[in-house]
Specification:
Keywords: Membrane, Transmembrane, Transmembrane helix. This protein has three helices and no strands. The longest helix is centred in the first third of the chain and has 37 residues.
Length: 82
């Protein structure tokens, strides 16, 4: 098999080029994933411990909206007439 590949130098060159390009693409994908993970890690470290996350904020907001919808409306404020 190796002798056949060595005979056809153009095909050998194309296979070598394809392998090198594949290695470059995989390396770039790993590097990009590393950058994205690093950015996410920095973003999550910016949230102080014990603070609300986005999900708890959404749940609290939804709970407040539902409570306000079912609650009785506040009495109207008295108007001052001259």
């Amino acid at each position: 098999m190796i002798k056949k590949l060595l005979k056809n130098r153009r095909e050998l060159f194309l296979w070598s080029l394809a392998i090198v390009l594949l290695i470059i693409v995989i390396s770039y994908a790993i590097f990009a994933a590393h950058l994205i993970a690093n950015r996410l890690n920095v973003a999550f470290q910016a949230i102080p411990p014990g603070s609300q996350t986005v999900e708890t904020f959404k749940l609290e907001t939804l709970k407040t909206l539902l409570e306000n919808r079912t609650a009785t409306p506040p009495p109207p404020e008295p108007t001052v007439s001259n």
